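> run fold TIGR02808 family protein
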Amino acid sequence: MSTLESVIWHTLGYIAMPSIILGGFAAVAVLSIWILSLKADKE
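> ok
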């Protein structure tokens, strides 16, 4: 594997975990807000 390939794979590896965690957090937040808005009073 060339140096460039190694740098690319290491960068992707370091970016993957935070993006998965933040993406999951955002998805849960949006889903929770949507569910709460369905149960909110419509007055």
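The CA atoms of residues 4 and 10 lie 10 Å apart.
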